[in-house]
């Protein structure tokens, strides 16, 4: 089951020790997965797992290891160039949508400050991960999407990053207990409030 917005929100709260952590290693074990090995005073040594699989997409902390392919993909090589040695300065979720921006600050070859972002979208078949420069221009992304009849947007290097439109739903974290108590079915909860998957809605309202 892919992560929903509420689960992602809880994960980021648990991973707040990553703020200030240094990136030591970047791996891409398969086409959908990234592993950032980090260390920091508040998190110790840990790996940030990013997976954009259609059905099992998730972001998590792990201490598991993974085998590297014989030749690193181009996106992985770029991440190594831009992220290794940098520190995580922000982790921001777009409301309770399944989009997270990780901001990094480091130094380039000339020792000038280098700022970039890794934006992860856990959006099923539209899921993607983007490396952006300081102006939100795409340096590269895991899934390249050009102009086409079914394309929601262009996802290619040197194109300005365009975020997916936000959900037109209420934030359950801002709702009162009375408002949430008035929801009478899993479908109403899922359709009315952002970040709630079908599975979570059924757990919260099993008799709805």
- The SSE string, one letter per element, is HEEEEHEEEEEHHH
* Beta-strand content estimate: 25-35%
- Sheet/helix structural class: alpha+beta
What would the average pLDDT be, to the nearest integer? 90
Low-confidence stretches: none
Q: Count the strands? A: 9
Percent in helix: 10-25%
Summarize the structure.
Helix content is 19%, strand content 31%. The chain is of the alpha+beta class.
How do the helices and strands line up, and which of them pair or pack?
Layout (H helix, E strand, L loop, with lengths): L4 H10 L7 E9 L2 E8 L3 E8 L6 E5 L11 H10 L3 E7 L5 E9 L5 E9 L6 E5 L5 E4 L35 H5 L4 H7 L5 H7 L4
Antiparallel strand pairs: 1-2, 2-3, 3-4, 5-6, 6-7, 7-8, 8-9
What does this protein structure show overall?
The longest helix is centred in the N-terminal third of the chain and has 10 residues, at 5-14. This protein has helices spanning 5-14, 74-83, 177-181, 186-192, 198-204, and strands spanning 22-30, 33-40, 44-51, 58-62, 87-93, 99-107, 113-121, 128-132, 138-141. The chain is built from five helices and nine strands; from the N terminus they run H-E-E-E-E-H-E-E-E-E-E-H-H-H. Strands 5-6-7-8-9 form a five-stranded antiparallel sheet, covered by helices on one side. The protein is α+β, with helices and mostly antiparallel strands and 208 residues long.
What key attributes describe this structure?
208 residues; 9 strands; 4-stranded antiparallel β-sheet; alpha+beta; 5-stranded antiparallel β-sheet; single chain
């Amino acid at each position: 089951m892919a992560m929903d917005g509420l689960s992602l929100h809880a994960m980021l709260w648990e991973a707040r020790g990553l703020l200030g952590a240094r990136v030591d290693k970047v791996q891409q074990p398969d086409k959908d997965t990234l592993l950032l090995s980090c260390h920091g005073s508040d998190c110790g040594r840990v790996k940030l797992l990013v997976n954009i699989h259609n059905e099992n997409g998730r972001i998590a902390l792990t201490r598991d290891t993974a085998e590297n392919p014989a030749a690193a993909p181009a996106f992985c090589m770029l991440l190594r160039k831009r992220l290794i040695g940098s520190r995580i300065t922000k982790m921001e979720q777009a409301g309770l949508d399944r989009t997270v921006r990780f901001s990094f600050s480091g130094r380039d070859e000339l020792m000038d400050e280098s700022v970039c972002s890794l934006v992860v979208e856990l959006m099923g078949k539209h899921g993607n991960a983007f490396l952006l420069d300081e102006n939100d221009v795409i340096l590269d992304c895991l899934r390249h999407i050009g102009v086409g009849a079914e394309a929601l947007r262009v996802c290619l290097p040197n194109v300005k990053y365009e975020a997916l439109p936000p959900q037109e739903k209420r934030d359950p974290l801002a709702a009162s207990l009375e408002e949430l108590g008035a929801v009478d079915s899993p479908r109403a909860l899922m359709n009315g409030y952002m970040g709630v998957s079908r599975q979570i809605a059924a757990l919260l309202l099993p008799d709805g």
